[in-house]
Amino acid sequence: MTRSNIFLFLFVCSSISIISCDSNRIYDSYKSVPNKWHQDSVISFKVNPPDSIKTYNLFINLRNTNAYKYSNLFLITQMIYPHGKTITDTLEYKMADPSGKFLGNGYTNIKENKLWYKGHDNKFIFNETGTYTIHIQHAMREREKINGIVELEGITDIGFRIENTHYN
Question: Which of the four CATH numbers 3.40.1350, 2.60.120, 1.20.1630, 2.40.128 does domain 26-164 have?
Answer without folding.
Answer: 2.60.120
